[in-house]
Amino acid sequence: MILSAAGVLVAALAAAASIVLPTGRARAAAMLLALVLFPLLILGDQWHSTQIADLREHTARLVALGVVGLVAAIALAAVFRRWAILLPLAIVAALPFRIPLHAGGDTANLLIPLYLVIAGGVLALVSRSWPAHASRAGGVVGGTAPEDASATAGGGGSSTATGPARYLPWALAGVVVLYALQTLYSPDFSKSLQNVCFFFVPFSLVYALLRDVRWDKKLLKLALWVIAIEALAFVFVGMIEYLSRELFWNDQVIRSNEFHTYFRVNSIFWDPNIYGRYLALVIVVAMSALLWAKERRTMALLTGLVAILWLGLVFTFSQSSFIALLAGLAVLAALRWSLKWTLAAVGAGVVLAIVIVVFAGGASKLSPDRLNVDTSGRTNLVSGGVTMFARRPIWGYGAGAFPKAYREHIATKKAPVSVSHTEPVTVAAEQGIIGLAAYAALLVVALWTMASGLSWGAGPARAAVLATFIALLIHTLAYAGFYEDPITWVLLAAAASLATIPVRDAA
Fold first, then answer.
1. DSSP line for 175-223
2. CB 183, CB 404: distance < 8 Å
């Protein structure tokens, strides 16, 4: 326990250093240390679990997995060194994929492709940082900037960051370190360690790898192609599920579909709400490009893309994803046309929605019991989280403690839970006012960075980042997963990098 706790703190400090340190060997060393520690900590924590025990009984299989992973990371590092622009594209491409690993009778869905890309990116950066001639390396048009070009590449930790962008890496690093510190008194240390090592540490490396990326026109177009093609493929899979009335996985959703008049699809994703979130965010990005497009062919292609993705989103029946999409589109409308009229339209829409709910279901529709039924039990989770916060308002129950603390102190006879499904409530219950302050500070600095100097009618790149981030933020208010979603960290890195480019040039 003591060694694991020390390892978690060291890994978090290395991840924080990766975020804030200037480009150089010290930062490369911190990234390499974080890369090595997070899988070792997970392996040590789960060494006696049924999953690892099953692998330990088959030593050849365990060794083979390790060799395959190492070879893949080295191969990716060689590719990224040769073609630096492929690193950000590979990160973007790997974001939605989770690989089910079966061991000991259980299944874990892990971001294995993203972890391999991270490993390849860190190894590539380290190999560029260490040779004596690395500082004299030439520049690149897009992708990761070389060591001496960080000033022109921009990013979270570079000396060129001005205004609110200079505070973003510090706010993010503070969140990482604080979460690690609050694992020390969590009643479920194993869960909090997994959160640090599966999410906070590797996603910090994602931010560090992307902070010096030049998001030029070429890279932005390629990134749009990547997410568009992937999203179309996911919709294709989802439509096959809908037409065949069969899902590939997630027994809980399969059973749920048997008792509902509608049929929810999840495509390659485990949860229909996460599938819906991804489609909603891609639609916001595509709409950003569409609203600023000038060529008819481009407009036609983007319109077709949005229509197909919208059709795919409909069959997720994810209310939180629809709301997130509307929020992102509202931001785009305000930036492209008029803030005043957009606010008026949003206000009218909210009033209309409330009136429809009241008149459709009567006042009883708004009762706590009815709301809890309509939200699949989330109302009780939220109220339980608020109660937990009231009992420990300063420091909370500890990082990752919500499931266990909820069962022990709020609903001992209820089925296992994960989070409150409302990110601020989860943060408040687990981390108290201290964690809420760090969470709020990150949001303020991030939104300030994204919106600073962004006048109405500005170009699509920064508008897309701001609108997509707000859509993601709104979704986490209904489904949580703010820190645990790698898209959050990608958007923060892109915002920090784009903030260094004058708005008149970014258009």
1. HHHHHHHTTTT-S-HHHHHHHIIIIIHHHHHHHHHHTTEE--HHHHHHH
2. no
**Interval 22-62: pLDDT, tens:** 988 999 999 999 999 998 898 887 776 666 666 666 677 77
CA-based end-to-end distance of the chain: 52
- pTM for the full predicted model: 0.87
Answer yes or no: is pLDDT of 248 > 70. Answer: yes
Cβ contact 273:485 at 8 Å: no
Tokens (6 digits) for 444: 């303020």
- Residue 281 has a CB neighbour count (10 Å cut-off) of 27
CA distance 460 to 457: 9
Asked if 146 and 128 count as a contact pair (C-beta separation under 8 A), the reply is yes
How far apart CA 163 and CA 160 sit, in angstroms, is 10
Would you say the C-alpha torsion 454, 460, 461, 467 has a positive or negative sign? positive
Say if CB 197 and CB 36 are below 8 A apart: no
Residue with the bigger pLDDT between 366 and 288: it is 288
What are the angstrom distances between the C-alpha of 89 and each of 268, 285, 424? 20, 15, 31
Q: Specify the amino acid at residue 368.
A: P
474: how many CB neighbours lie within 10 A of its CB? 21
Local structure of 108: helix, strand or coil:
strand
User: Which tokens hold the place of 333?
Assistant: 């409308």
Q: Is the pLDDT of residue 505 over 60?
A: no
Question: Residue 414: its pLDDT value, please?
Answer: 53
Cβ burial 58-88 (10 Å sphere, 16+ → b, else e) = eeeeeeeeeeeeeebbeebbeebbeebbbbb
| From 94-108, 158-172, 385-399, 406-420, the region with the lowest mean pLDDT | 406-420
DSSP run (H or E) holding 476:
helix 460-479
For the chain, percent of residues with pLDDT exceeding 90 = 50
| Inter-CA distances, 220 with 257, 289, 485, 495, 502, Å | 39, 10, 21, 13, 17
Residues 6+ apart with CB under 8 A from 42: 193, 194, 197, 198
Q: What is the spatial distance between Cα 386 and Cα 426, in angstroms, rounded to a whole number?
A: 9
- Between CA 303 and CA 217 the distance in angstroms is 20
Distance between CA atoms of 498 and 464, rounded to whole angstroms? 11
Rounded distance between C-alpha atoms, residue 368 and residue 390, angstroms = 19
| Residues contacting residue 142 through CB under 8 Å, at least 6 positions apart | 84, 85, 88, 213, 214, 215, 216, 218, 219, 222
Q: How far is CA 48 from CA 38, 202, 278, in A?
A: 17, 24, 35
Q: What is the pLDDT of residue 86?
A: 95
